Give the backbone structure.
Amino acid sequence: GAPSDRTLLTDDVLHRQQQLAPISDVRVLGSHEGGSGAVVNVRYRIGGQSVSDAIELQRRGDTWALNQVAVDVELSAPANLPKPTVFGIAVPNDGELFVFPGMVQFGSADANFALAPLTAVFSDPDVPAMANPTPTLSGAGRAELIKVVSAAMARCARSRSLHPKGCPQHTSRPAARGLITGSMRWQAPHRYGELNITDITVDSR
């Protein structure tokens, strides 16, 4: 049937797909015809990726036409993704999108996030596809996180409390005997640019 959403089925998006990963080396391996239709087995490349497909065609008068033109792609758990985009275009809220066969580029309209994997290939218009990109921090997001952590640690370091509220440092009970609140001096760790933040779980909610 006809795609319910044609937002990504434009000449501009098709051009971007071809720039990202051109379709080349198309070879017809064989076909079977029956009734008003036919199935053509083909092999081709999308960028550097080899693809083998069985393409369904319909006879229309003296010509043949593709049974389906667009690939129906569903994003897994779209509500958990931070403003997901494809080629910079917003993904529908239900996470269902229709694209021409080829490579697509995922992203986020929130500058602090990216999606991984960044790209994916969808090739068969006759079979619905599932995509499962996950949110990651972008370069700007990592920089913002380091800024926030740095500010929080600087605040904690300014405290003179034995047990600063909301801070990771505290004096042990034996060491605290005889110490007076207000007499402590804390020092924040340095070299925030080398913080390992690769294991942080990103939750857009």
Remarks:
- The first strand starts at residue 23 and ends at 34.
- Residues 78 and 201 are 16 Å apart (CA to CA).
